[in-house]
Amino acid sequence: MDKSGYISLTDGRIAEHRRQDLPNGKTGLDDMGTASLPLIGADRLANVSPVIGSHSSRFGLVAMTYANSGKPVFPCNPETKAPMIRGGFKRATTDRLVIAKWATKYSTAMVGIPTGKESGVTVLDFDPECETTAEQMLPGMPVSRTHSTPSGGVHVLFKYTPEAGTIGADVIPLPKGACTCEPTATKKCQIDLRNDGGYIIVPDSVRSDGGTYTVISNAGLAEMPSEILAKLKEGKREKRQAIAVPAGTAEGMYPEGQRNHALASLAGTMRSRGMGAETIEAALLVENQKKCNPPLPNHEVTAIATSIGSYPVTNSPQNSKLVNSDNSLVRIEKISEQTYSDSLKFPVDSLPEVVRNYCVEAAKAIGVPVEMVACPMLAYAGATIGRHQRIQLKRGFVQYPALWVVTVAPPGAAKSPADAAARIGIDQLQSEAKQVFDLAEERFKRDLQSWKDSTSNETRGPAPEAPVLEHYYSTDTTIEGLSRILANSPGIALSRDEIVGWVNAMDAYKGGKGSERQQHLSAWSYTPIKVDRKTSATLLIEHPVVSVVGGVQPDVMNELAVEAGRRDGFLERVLWIVPSAKPTRWSEREVSPESRDALLDLFRQLRHIDSNPNPVKLSRGAYKLFTSWYDENQESINESAGLMQGVYAKMPLQLARIALVLHCFEEPAQPANRSVSAETMANAIKLVEYIRGQAGLALMMVGVGSKYRGSGTTARLFQILTQANGEWCSRSKLHKQLGGHTPAEEINQSLRELEDSELAEKRKPESNPTGGRRGEEWRITPSERTELSEETSWETVEPTEGESITEFTI
């Protein structure tokens, strides 16, 4: 039926239902005029790529937005609305890691949230089948948050009302004349209840036909009026009386003891044909009334439908077909569990035998996925090779083997032991270098003393030179410190247990105005680093090779949101690893001495490779593979947006660097004497494809829609001003809250940055209550206070006249 036209909103406004043409030739409902207030605008959706691996990420952004506000979410089928995970809404979660993996597995899913106590909302679901409106179906509704569904339905959300009972269909009788459906119509207008035991699809979810769930009233949550609650209870009571049947069991009826089995069997048949939980529920309620003697309570029937509806469609390995009422066919793609598992599986066979054997044994001994050892090892190997080797993709276009690898895993997942296992090669080299240095230093001290003791300036010659320790890794994160190491080492690995601390501390002592961040970005791209200091000689590192290895917990990934807002390519340079890691159990396994020794010998050869003026080149087969993959990746850049677009743009460089590391693993003695083989390039592509998919998981856990609000002292000042709730703060107050040790110039620079970014505003008070010179004061701007409130508020606000509402804005 045609549902175009106008409807009355709960706050008295009028909104237009308009049909829109969809790409597949069907029609659906677009946003409901100016009355609609979407949760997530197009500008925020653009901050996450619509392509993660080969999947769309809209589910991830919408789901993360709700999860960040404390609302548990789960994926729902865009065809049937049924849960796409076993257990359905009962497995709804706010866990960012789980949601990120769902976003890859169920890329086109809609977002569901459980109703009832779990989310704090009770929902009346209005399903008009004629030209009636929600207000006509249930007069006297208060102003409360209201959503529209693509099929023309309306969800009115209230504060959680346990007295309303569990979910149910057709729970409130409609006023006379409210429904104009034909008496013989199979479906008529009705009001359903979504409360404990139910769920709804939330706004910004998109059906497979393009229909979108939207917000049509962004008001706060109202209390369910006692009048409506009374109608709800009366409607349920009348329905129970209406469906009661006399005792006795006629032919074809299901007596007690058979009712649950019969309804579950019917539900299973419907589910095997691709039907969703709501469709199954509607059919079971009818079957329950007609054939169960006595009928089961509605909530038990609904529980059966919800449980069966949560199972995947498994009737056939082929795609199922669902027949619409107009006899058109909708093809339901069956999700392949194996395909998903393969897309997340680390391609360990892509590693050379010596590296593979060690990584597999070490991972089993620790009890972690093999990628937690293998991926950091690639970065450590790149630092070991350093600027001694480079790979040439074409004339004038070379890459050195610097890699930034970050592992995202929860506490207790053995990140540190895995990193230690990956670092064993450079640890051993560093230990051996220290022994050589100690011997050389002892010799130097003896020679220096002999030189000093010599009485003849003509015979003793120049003073002996002090030995220099060769470095392989460092925990000094400043560019100046790393540059002094790189002056005597071909490459260095920067090892950090928690990568967020490194990022947040960058330029902290300069109020975010220093050059540390830019220098690290430049070092990744091999831009020469020049360090000038008055107290020491100028340092110039022409081809700096700095690999970065670190870890981060999923729960603190959102602290990198400001990095997403800066959009300077910092996050896009990282190779993210999101393993399925869990707290480990004790294992008796150990790494065999043979595997350990073979790996250490390999790392020794990597470091002692002679610097070759000629770059490593690609064989014809490797070049063909690289260019083919490059062209395909460029298409992915065009199809993506935001951070993932930057990830794709840097993937060809990452591929070249990984290919160089693999080639050096295979030809450690003289890498430049042989070209990179097609097999090595194919293995490097497998690793990059895996890492590219991992980037989607990781960046989904970052607040990619977040706005940049400073770093270092600037970020801390912004936080202090935010906590002041719009009150003016003097410079002395800010200085005190920063700890009392921050230099005045640093505070001034940070305040200017906040002002320039329109994040804070400044004033001079007309008078000083305590006398003396008037001082300047700051506060966050009104627009920023509003935006922050809209991003995070689920708190009760002061009610307007005649209302009692709770903010529901995300």
Please sum up the structure shown.
This protein starts with a strand and ends with a strand.
Can you put this structure into words, describing what you see?
Helices cover 40% and strands 15% of the residues. It has 26 helices and 31 strands. The chain is elongated and about 120 Å long. The longest helix is centred in the middle third of the chain and has 30 residues, at 424-453. The chain is α+β, with helices and mostly antiparallel strands and 810 residues long.
**End-to-end CA span:** 34 Å
Task: Compute the number of helices.
Answer: 26
Instruction: Name the helicity range.
Output: 25-40%
How are the strands of the biggest sheet laid out side by side? Answer: 10-7-9-8-12
- Count of β-strands: 31
Mean pLDDT: 76
Give the amount of beta strand, in percent: 5-15%
**Secondary structure category:** alpha+beta
Radius of gyration: 33 Å
Oligomer: single chain
Q: Uncertain regions: pLDDT < 50 for 5+ in a row?
A: 1-56, 241-249, 314-343, 508-513, 787-810
Biggest sheet record: 5 strands, antiparallel
Principal-axes geometry comes out as elongated
